[in-house]
Automatic annotation (TrEMBL):
Keywords: DNA-binding, Transcription, Transcription regulation. This is Helix-turn-helix transcriptional regulator. InterPro entries: HATPase_C_sf, Sig_transdc_resp-reg_C-effctor, Tscrpt_reg_LuxR_C, WH-like_DNA-bd_sf. Pfam families: GerE (PF00196). The keyword tRNA-binding does not apply. Residues 371-436 form the HTH luxR-type domain. GO terms for molecular function: DNA binding.
Amino acid sequence: MSTAIDHPLKAASLLTTDLPWPLLHTIASLAEAPLIQIAERLRAATLPYLKSSALVIFTEDCTGRPQKKAGAEEIISRVSITELDALRASLGDETFWSGKAELAGEPRPLYALKHASSGALLVLTDPEPAIGADHDAGLDLVTYLWRIAAQRIQEKVADAPPSYLLESRAASAERVRVTAELTDLHSTTLETLLAALRSSSLDDAAARTTVTDLAAKALVGLRTHSDRTTGLVEVPVAIAFERLREDLRPLTRFSGLEIEFIEPPQNGRALPGEVAHAGRAIVRGLVLAMMEQPEISRVRTQWDCDGENLLINVRDDGRGMLAPDAPSIGRLDRQVQALAGQLRVEVMPRWGADVFVTLPLDLPARPAAAGDIAGWDLAPRELEVLQHLVAGQRNRTIALTLGISENTVKFHVRNLFRKLDVSSRTEAIALANSHGLR
């Protein structure tokens, strides 16, 4: 009797010992990675099969942080959206490209791969096969791991949890502000250069013409880059609504549910990216919650924008059994509150449920409360430095303002990074903004 019982247990033990546990643990770690760690975990997962000096992910799904990077600091600190966008435009879907391309300001050997469904881009710099690894098998495995990471990014953004929305909004606002400052600065510089080169006091006409043309092209490129950056964090309301229609199409195809879409006005103010993502996620969640009721056959969803708010209305034709205090509605309400919005549910017995959501397009400014930042345990001087960072000042300006050396400012900045658990000035500023520090 004991032999008959032990035999399958031994077989199962032999089976599990033959499994590639390191790879399975790597896949599990990647599948559950938070967005802020996705690049680091993907690079760690790929290194045993394909060596690289840096790994860069570019995805427009994440409006606040479209670049996710890990590896050599001299590369990841200099790579630009313009370079990544140009590289992505030249690629087909799900096919590894190898060659030299401009990245971080100079031509580099690259491997690049674009995710089919999201258009997200993966770039590996200075790639070479890992020692003892089969090159083709390594590429296949990296492709598989990239699909998991890209899908993880899509799922996290689609869920639009409150923490993501807060970080995304703060980072988006900071990036637009810094880009606007850089555009003003360099536009002034280039316009001054153009005025000088066009001056009649310069007698080398050929040189003046050549340099004028080059400067003019640089000015156009800089402004185009500014427009491109703004485009990453804003979505026209009509386009956002069309993406919502695509999101909900499977429900109409497989559930038998009829969804009526009331089109928003074609003109009007564009939506910040995090508001557009949140709006789509909230409508999806409301439709799914409504479908849990009996005798639901039709849902109507409508968007509008009054210039200050995204206005959402979702109504069903059920029997009025949607519970305003249901966990699913509570989760959606937390998403709404993360963007300082309001959610109201009106249930009409035997006539269905009507849900109204208001999402402000601009996050109301508020002074930082002491309790908001008390947990950071900042010294008074560190708080001063952080406030100057939020104001967009560089280390030299902060040093002059506070009457301290630039090295002392760098010391305080390093302490801020450690206490705030961030790795860059942009992350520190975004976190401070999300806690109301102005």
